[in-house]
Each structure stands twice: as C-alpha cells, then as structure tokens.
C-alpha cells in the first residue's frame, strides 16, 4: 500500500517507542464480487508514533533506602574521597562509587594515584553535572533534569560506564528533540554509540529534513563530523528512493 510522503513504512516498523496512547487507522478500498467469497492474510503490523515521546518524571516517591542514601550524600558522613571538577569539589564514598561504576571500581581497587591521595579529578565537567551524576549514583534518580544537564550527563555516564543513567538521559533527550537541537542530539548519540538515541534522532531528521537541512546546526554538523552527515544523507536518499518506488 501507499503511505503519505511525510512517513515511510520503514520508519513505522523501526519505531522503538512504547506507548498505548497512539492509534493508527488504515483506510482501504474494498471491491466485493457477488456470489464468490475469498480472504487472505497479508501482514499485521503494530507500531507507535515515534515523535510524541514524553519524558515522564517518576511518579513514585523515593524509597526509604533512596532517602537514606540521599542523606548520606548530603551530609558527607564518613566520606573517604573527594571528587573534584572544574569549579567545585564534592566529598563522596568509595564503596558507593565502586558498586555503581566499573571505572571507579578499577580506580580504587588498583594502586592508582586517585586511590592513594583520595581525590578524583573530573575536570571535563562542571559542578552542576557532577552533582547530578553523583546524585544518580547514590539514589538512582536525577530529580532536576533539563536539556543542558541531559546532553552533558549522558557523556559522563558513558565515560564511567553507568548504562542506567545513559538510558535515563537518552529518554529525556528524545522527549526534547526539536528542529533546533536534533543535530546536536544525533552527534552525541553517534559519539557514545547509543544506537536507540541515534535511531530516534535519525527518524526525526527524516520527517523534518526540509527544515533541518537549512539550519546552522546542520552546517555545524557537516563541519564537525562529515562521516555522520554523509550517513544521514545516505539514509535520506534511500528513503526518497523507497517512497518513489511505493508511488510507482
């Protein structure tokens, strides 16, 4: 069957969004011949809209354990290491960092400088990102998330191998994707090999290509990552060919 120009069958099949709120109606023309009856099963598809993603804050209140660990983080009681960033330093606890991050575990289990002096330098992030990162390590939550935090925090989560936080940030970035920022989002996803976020951003670009390819952000992407830009254009070209074949 033929789809409208703004979406393709491939996009619908590859959609990864889980939601029961979106329904699609398939309109068909049916011809009925008298005195005969036949039926056939062609194909059954289930899909959801890829571009109404909402990042829903956790409605469930923090558990008592989460509150206790939040209090430990806030009070700094028995802290035995200091995490230092570009504009702040925060006391923390080695055992929590080790349990939550394989990178910290390797750092503290070996005879490394950070373990000897009790200081870990994370100079590539600022205090706001460091606080959000440590908050998640202690409580499994980030209560105050915004776009700027999410796009930086996902890089830190990837660097320190905290996949749950990567997923949390990726979900938020999907919820805030726009014509203005999707080029930055797909660049981040490509950098850390986050395929679900990259696929989502690519589908968003496919549906809004006319507007996105004329933005300064797209020009910046070409200049900064020609390989990624070429990949995106190849996907757009393939979709155009498929659309033309569907119409013929």
Automatic annotation (TrEMBL):
Q: What is this protein called?
A: BTB domain-containing protein
Annotated BTB domain residues: 79-146
- What PROSITE patterns does this protein's entry cite? BTB
Question: Pfam families given for it?
Answer: BTB
Signal peptide (from-to) = none
- Species name: Parasteatoda tepidariorum
